[in-house]
């Protein structure tokens, strides 16, 4: 079947018609033949085996038995009556039960004639029964098609009510496959031979109507591989096209600013990982292409120093740099840290946020346009049209998942050629997910902590141990340290959570009375200026305890805070807990994180507590999180476009993903535009799948 026929509207399939077509469209998003063919079964009923009654197990499975009906009787019930038949083979007997349709059954069933029955078993006091079995004469069953494994398709309540049953979808699918003949091959013959794959036609037939479980497994492998292969081709090609088409400014030298900083200002030796990442960035900046790099590193791994040193390379080459952060607090922290490090070098750094005063803005804009200003740090105020650089060469974006594509696109327009882009994130993204979400970005990872950092000790305590936890808090405060106490906030029940926070705050005030202890509180219902004031008091050390909902999870740096208490920790996701824990451990002292939960924990809850107490490695934690929550929830919805997978599963099939990526790499390296004769079929399939050729494809 060719690509054009596949686009035929579903109402033209025999047995569908306009009414059913509307239901299929609204309930299952099946609009054309191709959508139906890609509507894959989620499980299969194995009818390849017949059971003897003596072999039946109490596992509520669906089974198939050959036997005879020896007698039928009607039994009264509270409401109406039920029909019961004794069904036996040479090893025993079971009861068949019907609660409706009695007339038809009494007229059509013969005693002592051989039948095949199929259905779900019930076990009551050791004897088996089968309610409403599928029943067919043995002779007729033998003449049926040789499909042994029957597909079960996803359905909805509305479809079942309107008579679109699993059997009907199977019939439509069977009809469409009969009519479609052979499918155009979408994979290279060399890949098919190499991996011993099924053809596309065999795979499509065996995914819907498998002849055996081996053939089903082969069909699944083939189709999962193909799905990943094309996603990877798309991402890798985007990257290759980007590098060839989108020219970048070439930073030819590493000069005075960079060397002076490295030799005299840098407060500590860089880790091996930081040096490796800097080499990767320098290589990009020295080429003719525009850099588009994702820098991943756990909280506290030293991403900011790497970003600053990259900015100094830009300045050495006569360019300016900017750093965009998602919140004012984060922007000011970056500003304080970076301007302090740049002072001895004479590098000019400024900050621009929503609260920058008008007269200051005017001066700032002038200095930015005449090139006096080297580095501008700020919130999305940076992308306003009024902000004009003399020569922007590098844009660093912190916590990129908080900025939309359109916002990043505005940064591109700040110079004649787009500036180099370095995107930083402290949210560790598992390798498999990064390959699928950011396959078009080059990825650098800082995977070791700077020397002198002590790993945070994490413990799990139940509510009943609260008094011991309070004593521990007092001990830490007596040593001169500060403490975070975090409460969950779940939007649906904001009032309930607010009460939680306020009750917690009241009990902490009783336990830690003024004037001996000072407490700050920050939550979502406060005005921004009140939040900033409270944060400021804590940052300056005027309060020892910060009681908060999760507003503190991103980026606040208080080196003196050494203890993080997380209340109702079972209500947080793993990556969120890991982010919160990263708020402490920023000074030279030993830091601690205490997870407090109720007694009753779900198995996922237990896994989360064990994972956090067992490791500080963000990537390991992200892998567990991916297994528990699935990819959609991990990244939020804005990126799920890539991940609307039809058959493959990122978690279970990550080995197939890796194989598919290596083959896709091979094709793209040899022929990024699929111009070679042997890649003709890939070109056709690729065009059919991804015909969106807008600028958005080039923007990370």
Terminal residue distance = 35 Å
- Tally of helical segments: 25
Strand tally is 22
| CATH topology group of the largest domain | Rossmann fold
**CATH structural class of the largest domain:** Alpha Beta
Domain Helicase ATP-binding: 284-446
Enzyme class: isomerase
Domain Helicase C-terminal: 465-632
Organism: Psychroflexus gondwanensis ACAM 44
Structural key phrases:
OB fold (Dihydrolipoamide Acetyltransferase, E2P); single chain; disordered C terminus; DNA recombination; 3'-5' DNA helicase activity; isomerase; globular; ATP binding; 42% helix
Sum this structure up briefly.
The chain is α/β, with parallel strands linked by helices and 700 residues long. The protein contains 25 helices and 22 strands.
Q: Overview of this structure, please?
A:
A hairpin with a 4-residue loop joins strand 2 and strand 3. The protein is globular. The protein is 42% helix and 18% strand. The chain folds into 5 domains: 65 residues, no CATH class; 87 residues, OB fold (Dihydrolipoamide Acetyltransferase, E2P); 112 residues, no CATH class; 191 residues, P-loop containing nucleotide triphosphate hydrolases (Rossmann fold, 3-Layer(aba) Sandwich); 159 residues, P-loop containing nucleotide triphosphate hydrolases (Rossmann fold). The longest helix has 33 residues. The chain is built from 25 helices and 22 strands. Helix 9 crosses helix 10. The strands form 4 sheets. A 7-stranded mixed beta sheet has the order 6-7-4-3-2-5-8. A 7-stranded parallel beta sheet has the order 12-13-11-14-15-10-16, sandwiched between helices. The protein is of the alpha/beta class and 700 residues long. 36% of the residues are buried. The C terminus is likely disordered. It starts with a helix and ends in an 11-residue tail after the last helix. This is ATP-dependent DNA helicase RecG. It comes from Psychroflexus gondwanensis ACAM 44. Belongs to the helicase family. RecG subfamily. It catalyses: Couples ATP hydrolysis with the unwinding of duplex DNA by translocating in the 3'-5' direction; ATP + H2O = ADP + phosphate + H(+). Its EC number is 5.6.2.4.
């Amino acid at each position: 079947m060719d690509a054009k026929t596949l686009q035929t509207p579903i109402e033209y399939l025999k047995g569908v018609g306009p009414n059913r077509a509307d239901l299929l469209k609204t309930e299952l998003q099946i609009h054309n033949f191709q959508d139906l063919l890609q509507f894959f079964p989620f499980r299969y009923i194995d009818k390849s085996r017949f059971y003897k009654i003596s072999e039946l197990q109490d596992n509520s499975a669906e089974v198939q038995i050959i036997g005879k009906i020896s007698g039928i009787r009607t039994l009264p019930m509270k409401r109406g009556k039920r029909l019961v038949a004794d069904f036996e083979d040479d090893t025993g007997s079971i009861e068949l039960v019907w609660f409706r349709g009695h007339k038809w059954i009494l007229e059509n069933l013969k005693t002592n004639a051989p039948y095949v029955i199929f259905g779900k078993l019930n076990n009551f006091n050791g004897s088996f029964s089968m309610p409403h079995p599928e029943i067919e004469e043995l002779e007729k069953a033998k003449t049926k098609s040789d499909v042994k494994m029957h597909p079960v398709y996803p359905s909805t309540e509305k479809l079942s009510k309107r008579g679109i049953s699993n059997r009907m979808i199977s019939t439509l699918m069977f009809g469409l496959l009969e009519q479609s003949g052979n499918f155009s091959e979408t994979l290279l013959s060399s890949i098919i031979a190499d991996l011993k794959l099924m053809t596309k036609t065999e795979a499509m037939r065996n995914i819907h109507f498998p002849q055996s479980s081996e053939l089903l497994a082969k069909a699944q492998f083939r189709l999962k591989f193909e799905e990943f292969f094309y996603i990877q081709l798309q991402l890798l090609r985007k990257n290759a096209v980007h590098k060839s088409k989108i020219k970048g400014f070439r930073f030819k030298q590493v000069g005075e600013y960079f060397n002076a900083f490295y030799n005299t200002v840098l407060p500590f030796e860089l880790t091996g990982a930081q040096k490796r990442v800097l080499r990767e960035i320098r290589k990009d900046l020295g080429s003719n292409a525009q850099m588009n790099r994702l820098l991943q590193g756990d909280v506290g791994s030293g991403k900011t120093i790497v970003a600053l040193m990259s900015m100094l390379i830009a300045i050495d080459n006569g360019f300016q740099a900017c750093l965009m952060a998602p919140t004012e607090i984060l922007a000011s922290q970056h500003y304080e840290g970076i301007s302090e490090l740049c002072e001895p070098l004479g590098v000019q750094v400024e900050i621009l946020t929503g609260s920058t005063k008008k007269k200051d803005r005017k001066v700032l804009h002038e200095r930015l346009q005449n090139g006096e200003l080297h580095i501008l740090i700020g919130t999305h105020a940076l992308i306003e049209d009024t902000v004009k650089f003399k020569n922007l060469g590098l844009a660093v974006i912190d916590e990129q998942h908080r900025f939309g594509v359109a916002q990043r696109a505005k940064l591109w327009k700040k110079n004649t050629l787009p500036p180099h882009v370095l995107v930083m994130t402290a949210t560790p993204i598992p390798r498999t997910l990064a390959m699928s979400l950011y396959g078009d970005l080059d990825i650098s990872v800082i995977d070791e902590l700077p020397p002198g950092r002590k790993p945070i000790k994490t413990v799990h305590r139940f509510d009943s141990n609260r008094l011991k936890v309070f004593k521990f808090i007092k001990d830490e405060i007596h040593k001169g340290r500060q403490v975070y106490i975090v409460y969950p906030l779940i939007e649906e029940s904001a009032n309930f959570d607010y009460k939680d926070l306020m009750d917690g705050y009241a009990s902490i005030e009783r336990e830690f009375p003024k004037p001996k202890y000072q407490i700050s509180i920050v939550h979502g219902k406060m005005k921004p200026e009140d939040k900033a004031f409270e944060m400021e008091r804590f940052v300056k050390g005027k309060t020892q305890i910060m009681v908060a909902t999760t507003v503190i999870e991103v980026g606040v740096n208080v080196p003196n805070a050494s203890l993080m208490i997380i209340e109702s920790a079972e209500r947080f996701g793993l990556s969120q807990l890991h982010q919160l824990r990263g708020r402490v451990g920023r000074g030279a002292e030993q830091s601690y994180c205490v997870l407090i939960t109720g007694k009753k924990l779900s198995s996922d809850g237990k896994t989360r507590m064990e994972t956090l107490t067992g490791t500080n490695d963000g990537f390991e934690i992200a892998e567990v999180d991916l297994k528990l929550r699935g990819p959609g929830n991990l990244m939020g919805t804005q990126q799920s476009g890539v991940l609307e997978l039809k058959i493959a599963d990122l978690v279970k099939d990550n080995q197939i993903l890796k194989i598919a990526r290596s083959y896709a790499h091979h094709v793209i390296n040899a022929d990024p535009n699929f111009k070679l004769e042997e890649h003709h079929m890939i070109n056709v399939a690729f065009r059919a799948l991804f015909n969106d050729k807008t600028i958005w494809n080039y923007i990370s």
